[in-house]
Amino acid sequence: MNIAIVGTGYVGLVSGACFADTGASVTCVDVDTEKIERIKRGEIPIYEPGLDELVLKNVKAGRLRFTTSLESVLNDQQIVFSAVGTPPDEDGSADLKYVLQVAKTIGQHLNKYMVVVTKSTVPVGTAKLVRQTIQTELDKRQTDIKFDVASNPEFLKEGNAIKDFMSPDRVVVGVESEMAKEMLTRLYKPFLINNFRVIFMDIPSAEMTKYAANSMLATRISFMNDIANLCERVGADVNMVRAGIGSDTRIGRKFLYAGCGYGGSCFPKDVKALIKTADGMGYSMEVLKAVERVNDAQKHVVFNKLAIAFAKEGLENKTVALWGLSFKPETDDMRESTALVTIDLLKQAGCKIKVYDPVAMTECKRRIGDTVIYARDLYDAVNDADALLLLTEWNEFRLPNWEIVSKVMNKKLLIDGRNIFEKKELESYGFEYHSIGR
User: Fold this and answer.
1) Is 35 annotated as a binding residue?
2) Is 266 a catalytic residue?
3) Is 90 annotated as a binding residue?
4) Coil, strand or helix: which one is 82?
5) Is the pTM of this model over 0.70?
6) How much is the pLDDT for 121?
7) Which of 260, 266, 351, 364 is catalytic?
């Protein structure tokens, strides 16, 4: 099967490499000439475990190609996926200009039947706009060519995307014709051969499913952070509360971890977009508005604990070490990360900031330049530090040599924003230890 994927960002590149690995002939398209040339040279522009090997393997096999011209390859394809960005506008709504530009290009050059699939996260009603845009261009050409639109939102977790794509717990597909359903069933069958888990539905429901899924997960996180903040005030332990409620099968154990707020490219953007969609329909998503407020406040919690610890002497000229910059482990993505908020607050307080992250140092430097000190490793970061803040739960932070850490720090203060350490152990090394909800 011949398919094209427009957009070589996180979703597009992972999808293209995984489809190619099942034997499909895949052409990835992007208007960014420099990015395409880099990928052709084997330089993968995003960090995702295993992605570089998968791309190179399928390029070498001739199943994966890259171009900057959709029109030159369009009519060799049976399915075209649109995986371009949908960044939030200033008002929080999703910006669809790239999605509609892809649709316009397809309408201008289409000369045979194909299925046009939106894989980007888009508001309900986008597929209808895509269809209208393609049809408008066909009408201008006075050409009557049949085509179908479909919605196939992605549910990839950064850091585990290849496994998620190759062995999905479900594939959601919104279609409006049997032909489109048949073609997408053929495409996805290799991934689901042992347990066929494609859920077909109408297109608006598919579009809504992605937003609802991410908003539900964001809600669980903010709920647990709210509970954690109350636990601190009443003397409860949020980890014990989590174990207690997570054992209820109606609730389950996942996404019940308290911490210093969620970030990334999906949850913040999708919660905002769903709120904005509802506002546009005259309905207020009160729960999600509270989820967003709780999360915004939670990103200040670690700094607030630090400020309380130094209430008498103040934070000015204190050296503060940060372990973790990315919004979660196994990615270099710093979009909406708690680290960016914390760094800004530390700068305002007049602190000297030393940071270390296993993979996100380059991304941090791209974002904020040399306004912080970039450490060689986790021990270099804490050397002469007055406080250590744990913001991302990378594996290499879980079992550090506390004897070394305690010896090289000026003051033994640790604020654990992800609850990965044990208070008794830290106190045995002389640390003043603070966590979330314990």
Assistant:
1) yes
2) yes
3) no
4) strand
5) yes
6) 86
7) 266
